[in-house]
Amino acid sequence: MAALDSSMQEGLLVDRAWFGRQGIESTAVDYYLRSGKIESLVHGLYRKPGPPLKWQQVVYSLIVLGHDVHVGHLTALSYHGYEHTLKLGVAQRIRLYSTRSLPSWVGKVDIGPGFIKMKRNLFPDGSIGLINVSFGTWDWPIPYSSAERAFIELASTLETREDILQAKLMLEGAANLRPMLLQSLLEACGNIQTKRLFLWLARTIGHPWYKHIDISRINLGTGKRQVVSGGTLDAQFLITVPKEVQDGQQEPLF
Predict the structure, then answer these.
(1) Nearest alpha carbon to residue 5 among 25, 26, 24
(2) Residue 210 pLDDT greater than 50, yes or no
């Protein structure tokens, strides 16, 4: 039992391959199962018996099992204190970014509120704008998007008038974003529409940090982009945006 006790922490989810890397043979795993030292959650996934799982334990376990994942988008914005603008009473699924497909067991483990794997990879340098947040008894480091990165991630998924107005409400409360980090993130971001939409929101709101962003260093591409249908064309960033939001630099879309 010494090998199991010393290597498998409470709350960690592991598979047979993980046991093998710890030098624990398959026959020993079967013994631990029969004796109740570990339990099977779904086929091929194990943990020590204990209290109900938390979603952070699932995320850290993915990292231990070799997945490059981080918590981002609305989940990270909630961690950074912007949850008061989210819909009250609605359980938000955990937004995860991963460089590859997540194992099927992520959707089978009985844990609320569940996970969403975000599809768009915005940053070729995956580590830019990430922070580690300690969790649990062992201070497990879980990568989260900084508020700056999370707002850009949010901008990448805005498709409707309601989405944009909600994002604007959230960004209005973000007076303390760091312009140097935003500059680095926007220069590294590979999605043209996302950058234009974030910068439009930032300009419209007018936080002081926006004035410190050097737009000339950011690749914004060419041509017009339609974000919302029937909207107004912004003359600077050449995207269609909701008519309700005006700051003097929109023009009718003919």
Answers:
(1) 24
(2) yes
Alpha-carbon distances of 155 from 72, 78, 96, 167, 178, rounded to whole Å: 12, 15, 16, 8, 17
Percent of the chain surpassing pLDDT 70: 92
**CA-only gyration radius of the chain, Å:** 22
Is 27 domain-assigned?
A: yes
Residue 147: inside a domain: no
Residue 37 counted as domain residue: yes
Last residue of a domain, one of 30, 51, 72: 51
Backbone dihedral angles phi then psi of residue 189, each to the nearest 5 degrees:
-65, 135
| Residue 116: pLDDT over 70 | yes
Domain that holds residue 3: 1-51
Whether omega for the bond prior to residue 179 falls within 30 degrees of 0, making it cis, is no
